[in-house]
Fold this sequence. Notes:
Layout: E1 3-9, H1 13-24, E2 29-32, E3 36-41, E4 44-51, E5 54-61, H2 64-81
Antiparallel strand pairs: 1-5, 2-3, 3-4, 4-5
Amino acid sequence: MPMSRAEIATESGARVMNRLCKHWAHKLEVAQGEEESRVAFEEGSCVMRVEPGKLVVAVEALDEETLDRLEGVVDAHLQRMAGDEELAIVWEN
Length: 93
């Protein structure tokens, strides 16, 4: 399964992760923790881990096309949950 990862510089990693998990918990399977959370999509998954000064996000999908789509979904939602903070998200395969 293809996977990509992003290390996002932010001091608000826990807040952003928690907001996103609460948002997605209404329609997706979410395992939410204080430092690490996992979201299960129909065709893949997203793991978020809070580290000092950053949020590490890994997305895994069934194929490359789905991976690209999930990266976009996760990216857009992280930006929305960050509020006024602009997140620089660069996906690495």
